[in-house]
Amino acid sequence: MERNQNLLTSYLLIIGALLVFLSSCDPDDNIPVLSTTAVTDINQTTAVSGGDITLDGGATVTARGVCWSTGQTPTISDNKTTDGTGAGIFVSNINGLTANTTYYVRAYATNSNGTGYGSAMSFTTQEGSSEGNLTDSRDGIVSKQ
To answer: What order of strands is seen across the sheet that includes strand 33-36?
Structure first.
């Protein structure tokens, strides 16, 4: 009888420890892990970035790309590219930017457990060309640009 009681107590302790462990697991442990690559080829309206998905979180990456905004923490609810599926390195072409504006960009990857993000990076687009009249001081010619 005492042996059965000790066995029952042991089982209950094991089940209790397992329940405590499972309830403490962070669901974010199952989202992709990735980094954001440096922003290059910046001009007035476009730039290039991308990412490197090093862990898929135990599920297939179904969407990846970069997201950007003028706020410091862009998400996929902001502007984004969609650049294929799966883990590994990818390149993103960012379009539709405004000249002389600071943006924040970060890579994202989505699997069935959620979306992971790389670190945010900032960049500033180049100044736009000036519009208006130009005067050639040599001969007083005014031309419209």
So the answer is: 33-36, 47-55, 88-94
Q: Where are the domains of the chain?
A: 27-124
The residue assigned the tokens 């007035």 is 44
Comparing CA positions, the residue from 143, 97, 145 lying closest to residue 123 is: 97
Q: Which uninterrupted H or E stretch holds 66?
A: strand 63-69
Positions in the chain whose pLDDT score sits under 70 = 1-4, 6-28, 129-145
What's the token pair of residue 77? Answer: 């609810």
Which pTM was predicted?
0.72
CA distances from 41 to 26, 38, 123 (A): 38, 10, 11
Is 27-124 assigned to CATH 3.40.50.300? no
The residues, any chain, with a CB within 8 Å of residue 86's CB and separated by 6 or more, are: 53, 56, 60, 61, 64
DSSP assignment letter at 29: G
Determine the Cα angle at 13 with ends 7 and 19, to 5°: 135
